[in-house]
Amino acid sequence: MPPADGRETLRRWAEGGGPLAIRASIVLLAAQGLSPSDISRQLGVSRQTVTTWRQRYAAEGVEGLRDRARAGRPVEIDEAEIVVGILTAPADDRSSRLLARRLGCSHTVIAETRRRWNLTGSHLGLPAIPLHPALPPADLWTVGLHLDPQCTLLVLAGRSGPPMPPAPGRRADSYALSTVSSAMTDAVTVAAQLVAEVPAQGPAPERGGAAGFLDSVRRVHPHPDLHIVVLRAASGADDVTELGRARGISVHHIPRHTTEVSFLRAVLALDATRHPESSTRVLLDLAAALAGYTESGGLSRVQWVREPLPTTADTRLPTPPPGTGPAAGGGANHIDLGSFNECVVIETVRLAGTVTRGEIAERTRLTQQSVSRIARSLIQRGLLVEERPRHSSIGKPSSPVRLRDGAAHALGIHIDPNVLTAVLVDLSGRIVARHAEPITADPRPGVVVGQIAALGETVLAQAGPGRWEDGFLGIGVATPGPVDTVSGTVLDPPLMSALRDVPLRTLLERRFSCPIVIEKDCSAAAVGERWIGRESRACDFVYLYLGTGVGSGLFLNGDLYRGLTANAGEFGQLCAVTLGRFDPDGRPEILPECNPGSYSGQEPSRVVGRQRTRLTVPQAARAIGKGVLSVIDLLDLGLVVIGGPFFTGDVADVYLNEIEHAVNAYPTARRLRRVRVERSVNSSEAVAVGAASTIFHSTFTPRLRRNP
Known about the structure:
Blueprint: H1 4-15, H2 19-31, H3 36-43, H4 47-60, H5 79-88, H6 96-103, H7 107-117, E1 139-147, E2 151-159, H8 174-197, H9 206-220, E3 225-233, H10 237-246, E4 250-253, H11 260-274, H12 280-295, E5 302-305, H13 340-352, H14 357-364, H15 368-380, E6 384-386, E7 401-403, E8 409-415, E9 419-426, E10 431-438, H16 445-463, E11 472-479, E12 483-484, E13 489-490, H17 504-509, E14 516-520, H18 521-533, E15 541-546, E16 550-556, E17 559-561, H19 571-578, E18 607-608, E19 611-612, H20 617-635, E20 639-643, H21 649-665, E21 676-679, H22 686-700
Parallel strand pairs: 3-4, 8-11, 11-14, 15-20, 20-21
Antiparallel strand pairs: 1-2, 1-5, 2-3, 6-7, 8-9, 9-10, 12-13, 15-16, 16-17, 18-19
Helix pairs in contact: 1-2, 2-4, 3-4, 5-11, 6-7, 8-11, 8-12, 9-10, 14-15, 18-22, 19-20, 20-21
GO molecular function: DNA-binding transcription factor activity; kinase activity
Keywords: Kinase, Transferase
Family: Belongs to the ROK (NagC/XylR) family.
């Protein structure tokens, strides 16, 4: 039994944190008569660890539990860097020993940090950020950062309720985190130099604009609980506390063994790991704001505020009056497909139109028993319908099946710089209800989003109650790119400044209680072409969309190719590159090649200084044909489909002839194939129908990874 003074020291250490707490607990439990195995299980350490510290205590007493001095520079462990290492590692490489070897520290330090941040196990649970004072349990998001020479403030938003677990194997983007870290380091260096050159003469009014920053965060995020984390305060830290108290925002301080840069990286990594909406774009936007501060030499300040967070069940705004669409109901009726083979059968039936079970088995290579079982299940659930039996001279009569058109519906909304279009589409691609109207001239984002939501509600009401509620799968929204489809944010549409950086999906979720998918307009049009075209579009193809701009959608290996950020298909710039057209900054020009609406009749174009007159339709068609030629040579495709609102009337034949000549006369492999150039099978509402079809495509198309 330890002496009285030693017991007091051991109890004090055991009540604290860190390695000393474990070592003191080992000695105290051993003094109570527990065996090494019992101590190991109770404290979650190895038996070897228990034996080592018992022997050290027996030989050297209380002082033997302290770390021994080592030669060379003392090792300083930044626990925030350990957190980043955990979150950026693959799920199979998150054990403490593997991380210790990679980070060059003790595995016990890794294990202790994981316990403090609640990051134990390969599947990460709800983290617990060890701030002072402690945060209440909540799902935390990074929503704001303020940086000036006087202070650096990080704002976190906490939302109560059961959080959704992260996707298995999800980890933070290490490249984006490094970009933020470098930008933050540079910004902190500039701020420190300014403080050293001009010492602060007391607290500046409103803490260098921190008050206005906090007001902006509260306006954008009115519902969640907000928490200020003081990363740095040169002087007058109490002023930050007063600012927070005046706005009902709690103030916290970072752990002692972290720095402002490493702590910011750790919190961003936690956010990105837990929330799919916290995409790489969010990190890069923050890095750009920090880089702007550095480039200005500290003359500006960083006041980055994130867009509104995605809506959850406990934060959804009050729903509109009854009868205005899915917002009035209790949610969407999801169609749960039990297996990959069910999707294969549905796809086969969809492509064929009407087909027997034997033909399904022959096309899919599934057994007759499997096809019969799946077909019977789909008929019972109302997805398939049996037709009148076909009599045959051999064997029993066969009963062909087809999709039941009314088994599922989806709403598609097309946002164009000039007009908004909404359609309600059934499973066959037939338009049940439609409505279009000019887009409002009001530049306020809230007004535009309100018009979009009201248009969708109008179409659902027009369809009539009882015609679509059963099997309503969701809403697809097609918008000009670029789009952050992960968070549902429209970024920089070239001709729609009102929607710049607007979190469209989040805002629409406040009006509709159903799944919502945001897709680029040209990609949505390609999906609609695939869905409506059935067997004629079952091969790979490029869809050329002629709208307010020229875009393309690619179907490769049987599925839509979105690219790394779901923004593949920026075809208009390819046209400018093939023509050698660049603006003074070196960027490919986007007009007039990218705007079919600006083409003139037969008058030839002229160059006046740096200004060009409008292209004729044949000139534009030849320019676009050169771009399509590059796509065909690059991807070796055999089908080009052309559609869109400007592919109409007499100009359609001009485009077809010019593009067909380009893709068959000039490609390198022209002797091996004949590229077909065809009109779209879709209507003038091609993009709106395609937007609705993205919901069908993500639900029914067979794929091993099912991402909307």
